Amino acid sequence: MTQETGGFAAFNLNPNILAAVAATGYEEPSAIQHQSIPIIMAGHDMIGQAQTGTGKTAAFALPILHRIDPAKREPQALILAPTRELALQVATAFETYAKQMPGVTVVAVYGGAPMGPQLKAIRNGAQIVVATPGRLCDHLRRDEKVLATVNHLVLDEADEMLKLGFMDDLEVIFKSLPATRQTVLFSATLPQSIRAIAERHLRDPQHVKIQTKTQTVTAIEQAHLLVHADQKTSAVLSLLEVEDFDALIMFVRTKQATLDLASALEAKGYKAAALNGDIAQNQRERVIDSLKDGRLDIVVATDVAARGLDVPRITHVFNVDMPYDPESYVHRIGRTGRAGREGRALLLVTPRERRMLQVIERVTGQKVAEVRLPDAQAVLDARIKKLTNSLTPLVADAESTHGDLLDRLIADIGCSPRALAAALLRKATNGQALTLAAIERERPLVPNSAPRERSERSGDRPDRGDRERRAPVPLAEGRARCRTALGARDGIAAKNLLGAILNEGGLAREAIGRIQVRDSFSLVELPEVGLESLLAKLKDTRVAGKQLKLRRYRED
Ligand code: AMP
């Protein structure tokens, strides 16, 4: 087991930090948090081997916030991140955890944005500076004393920083910091170059690593689906249409997520309930009993609440949120495939979590195959199959019980048997979409589910891409639609595009319209006026390490 503490309270963090953590809905520290927080709180240098998805940001943010002095209006902690996207994400996390610490401010320092306001925020006394190395060096060239008061340094994703060629910048930054500072280094991998940095710049560091001993997973068919965080609920609903499950457990990270997802499922007619640490023990037992005897089919749980849950009916596990470590992945999916039965486990992976997927594959020694969301044809086939299965047992004797009534209705209404059967079907299926066209109309666009290639089965049906082109969202007046070949599969989210265009294009937020991220491309609405010069300005812009190459998009 990886989570054996009695929650975050055991760390003795500043109560204001604990209150902010409680407000996020986290129930238990993740493995990396469990190990790192006490070490960083105690002021030690540390090397943490962990990747995105393990909860590593909070693992350093919480103890660093605990150690700073809010009364001192000067930079006290510096977090270095390889990219602007990560710097923004880390800065936002710090803001969340510092919400109840009056006087604590955070500044994000990265390229592409004007330097003046960043320097001003530092000089105005932001205690937490989250920066990319390149831009921070630009600031140091202007004012070499700017970091003189920093006594905590965190290198986040250190291996990525080196890959991006920030070695020299890091050396400049190390020199500008007090030698007495605390240094914490997080890295997914520890190649020789990282070890060398640690040797030169860390003092007697403690090592923290999530144990990744090989785990065996048998009798469980595993698959993953690439999806953006905000599309998870609709992805889950689509998957449920085609998965042939008996009982199912879904894992999410927060209490709130258990409630939100369970109510979305209930609204669609599933017998679902939430299971989280806030729910009283006797109520939890009732939920589990209901799952056992079929009054419930789906339970949406946090890891903590699902401890010890053993229900042989469970045929499927959906990992809606990524587990923190491979061990808890194996533990979660072990809920299915009980008593030698076959089970199926599905893992939703956001673009940034792909690396965690690789770790899981390595540790379990198994490939977790990629699946795509079912297309309309698959949903139709599944719905018809369910209908067939529900009618087949009735056909045997319904004629003897209802045959005479049928004859009478045909006579009374004066219609053909086919017309009457169709009317009864319409009534029995309660408005459910049962044609391809109707299913396509009801399905929300789940962009990154677009098949990469048209499937053979789709024949001459238009694929999703065609449909989108045929029915584009109307453009607001004065806006032009632009396209980039970067999409979800490049690890792009709408906020990355927004950040890049705002920073490098010098636009106001209101000037940018809808941003749609698809699997292999993205669309952005920009002002028509001045479009050409804006595109020229963005010519060399890079997002997630790749050239943006934004072009006007013509819908014909
Ligand atoms: P990270 O690995 O830092 O990128 O974090 C991954 C995600 O996990 C973020 O969305 C965090 O908000 C979330 N998270 C971090 N710690 C916890 C926790 N103890 N419980 C639930 N969610 C968490």
Question: How would you describe this protein?
Answer:
With 556 residues, this protein is of the alpha/beta class. It has three domains: 8-209, P-loop containing nucleotide triphosphate hydrolases (Rossmann fold); 215-376, P-loop containing nucleotide triphosphate hydrolases (Rossmann fold); 479-552, 2-Layer Sandwich (Alpha-Beta Plaits). Helix content is 42%, strand content 15%. The protein has a seven-stranded parallel sheet with strand order 3-4-2-5-6-1-7, with helices on both faces. Helix 2 (31-41) packs parallel to helix 3 (56-67) and helix 13 (326-333) packs across helix 14 (354-364). The longest helix is centred in the C-terminal third of the chain and has 38 residues, at 376-413. Residues 1-6 and 445-472 have low confidence and may be disordered. Residues 26, 28-30, 33, 52-58, 253-254 line the site of adenosine monophosphate (AMP).
